[in-house]
Specification:
The chain has 110 residues and is mainly beta. Helices cover 6% and strands 45% of the residues. The protein has one domain: Sandwich (Immunoglobulin-like), CATH 2.60.40.1220. The strands form two sheets. A five-stranded mixed β-sheet has the order 2-8-7-4-5, with no helix packed on it. A three-stranded antiparallel β-sheet has the order 1-3-6, with no helix packed on it.
Length: 110
Amino acid sequence: MAVLLLLTLPIRLDAHAVLVKSSPAAGSTITGTFLPVSVTFNSKIDAARSKITLVGPGQSEQALAIRGGNAPNTLNAEADHLKPGPYRLEWQVLAIDGHITRGQIPFTVK
């Protein structure tokens, strides 16, 4: 009887925030020294408890300030004075379901 009850209960799946779009896109090549950054997820995120770090040539790291006025599922930031070479954005977000998700977006500056 208890098994039947468990099988008929609605199942709640807590989904983590999944990256659905980014600028720059993973694997892309950009030109110039200024980079507007935008990462969009499939669910609302807590921007105040999320972060984006730019890792550049020589593994130099720069924490990017997240700009206000974002959509509830998007983080925006900017980086400037970029030099040619390989880069990656490392992001960490706190979804509204309480789960932390992390990822990387590699790109190249030409």
